[in-house]
Write a structure and sequence with these properties.
Elements lengths: L2 E3 L4 E3 H16 L4 H8 L3 H8 L7 H11 L3 H12 L3 H13 L4
Antiparallel strand pairs: 1-2
Helix pairs in contact: 1-5, 1-6, 2-3, 2-4
């Protein structure tokens, strides 16, 4: 797959899409990154980095995230597949909007 450039490095599109999927599920639960981090046993900065596509989480981390979101792993995978149908430019725009809102 194509990769997207960030200000510091190249972020694989798959990571951007996964991050968007996590962000969407978190928004549906109306919880902050900090709250998701608390529920999943992860630092809020780590959750934010996943959502921005800066980190490629391990399977174990995905299980922790879905536990914190109170959804099945299959729900995250389905959301990922739905997000993959969205053009990459829209993922970058969503990431910039999240940063601009100062969300944590």
């Amino acid at each position: 797959m194509r990769e997207q450039r960030s200000s510091q490095s190249v972020i694989p599109t798959e990571q951007l899409v996964l991050g968007a999927a996590v962000r969407e599920l978190r928004a549906r639960n109306a919880i902050s990154q900090e709250e998701l981090g608390f529920r999943a046993g992860l630092h809020r900065n780590y959750v934010g980095a996943i959502e921005r596509g800066e980190i490629n989480p391990t399977f174990r981390t995905l299980l922790r995230l879905t536990g914190g979101l109170d959804v099945r792993l299959s729900a995250l995978v389905l959301r990922y597949e739905d997000e993959r149908a969205t053009p990459p430019a829209e993922h970058r725009a969503a990431s910039r909007a999240t940063k601009a809102s100062g969300e944590r």
